[in-house]
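Running low. Got one?
___
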Amino acid sequence: MPVPELPGRRERRRAQTLDHVATTAMRLFNTAGYDATTMEQIALAADVAKGTLYNHFATKEAILAHWVHMQLAADAERLGALLAEPGDFETRLGRLLAASADWSERHRGYLLDYFRFRFLNIEDELGGGGPDAEGRPRDLAGLFALLIEQAQQDGTLRADLTAEHLASLLHHLYFGALMRWLTLPGLVLSEEFEAVVELFVRGAAAAGKAPRGRKRA
């Protein structure tokens, strides 16, 4: 009689399968084109049964979303290092968004499909994006919260709202800038993000704190 697989091992194997399928799918998207690639082609290239693929991913957009989240998780440590570099809140937020702009520009062709899937499944994402098992942020929203919490502690930002609340509001500004850039021709993403930084810093500044480079009247 075979030895039953332990739950932890099953979860690891499932996670490995999801990551393998998403990585394989992205290779197909890059070579054949996203629209031209079918779920059947992904199953064949990933060497998984069609039924298994659909058990894990109901749509091609779900596979794309998993790959984007893989990239965010893998990049969180590098982006987190940016927060440790010298600078005030505004400087470090700008540095973080500049890195995000660079990544977004390189993957622009996939972002509308990703956001469409994400917004259609918004209820599944509520409460997500928390820290990993070691307490480290694993996505951009988590990094926003960490950065905001530090700024609240040093008196730069208002503390009447929680860091998570302010991070959520900042994340909405971030998405708004991305959507403008994706849907309106001629916009420059770095400039859209500069507007986000200015709006957020001015709105969330602690009482008596003037934004950098500006004097209170």
In short: The radius of gyration is 20 Å. Residues 59-217 form a domain with the Tetracycline Repressor; domain 2 fold (CATH 1.10.357.10). The chain has two domains: 1-57, 59-217. Residues 7-32 form the longest helix (26 residues).
